[in-house]
Amino acid sequence: MEDIVQAPDSPLIMVDGYVRRRGESTLSLVCLSSAGRIFTAEDDSGYPLFHASGLPFGMSLSGRCNVHDVVAGRRLFDFRHHLLGYKSGWVVESLDGDKLCSVRREKCPAGHLNIVATVPTQGDVLVTMWPNLHEANTAMAVCFDRKIVARIDLVDTPGMDDPDTRSEQERTACHAYVAAGVDLSLIMVLMLCCSEIGHSWN
Predict the structure, then answer these.
(1) Considering the chain, what is the average pLDDT of its residues?
(2) C-alpha to C-alpha distance for 185 and 133, rounded to whole angstroms
């Protein structure tokens, strides 16, 4: 899968400090709660890089999650719905309240679903999601600069009715294969969006 991603002509950055200049990266988004509101993003060695936590679905009007840098031990930004419910899109805000990224959903005539993330300093980043998102191993392409700069594979939908029947591997929500020059914190946000839509379709 990794060989289909290409580095952008210029780095794609939402937050400084999370771009690998050489080689491809792998992120796994692991759901730590059956309600689907506590996540850890791990690298290909299983080492946690980011942690996101929020109230269970239905208990927070904005669906706000706090995202932390696990290595540095600090809060990076907040991830929330733009209005009420995931269909209104999402906003990423700095700790000072500045908008780092906005994300919206677009249904397309071909029947697939696009997620468009707008980073104020970068422009639009397109994620194409096909209508069988609720099925295992569904692939999503992340496009920027007319290149596929990352690929997100949905592995499992968090929040299934019988978590006792699921293994640790099944609790992995998404895998992402990321080209050099792409901000891993932005990919973390897109993985959270993909996972939340998958949860709502379950």
Answers:
(1) 78
(2) 22
